[in-house]
Amino acid sequence: MPAEPPPVCYSSRVKRLLCFLAFWLVGFSAMAHTGLPPDSLRQTTLDSLISVQCPGYTAVRISNILFVGNAVTKERVLRAELDFHEGDSLVTETLARRLELNRRRLFNLQLFHHVLVQAVCREGSLTVLFSVQERWYTFPIPIFSLADRNFRSWLDRSDRWSRLDYGVHVVRKNFRGRNEQVLANIQLGFNRKYELFYEAPGYGKRRRIGFGGGFSYYQSHALDYATFRDRLVNYRQEDEFPIERQYAIAGIRWRRTVQHRTALDVSYHHERISDSLYKRNPSYYLGRTQRQYVEVSLVSTLNQRNTFAYPLTGQFAEVGVAYRSFLTGGSPNITTFWGHYAKYVALGGPFYYSVGVQGRARLAQQVAYADNRAFGYEVLVRGYDAYVIEGRHYGLVQQGVTYRLFDAGRVKLNGINNAKINSIPLALYLNTFADVGYVRNPAVASVTNRLPNRMLASAGLGLHLATYYDWVFTLEYTRNVEGQGGFFFRTAFPI
Question: Based on the structure, what is the number of domains in the chain?
Answer without folding.
Answer: 3
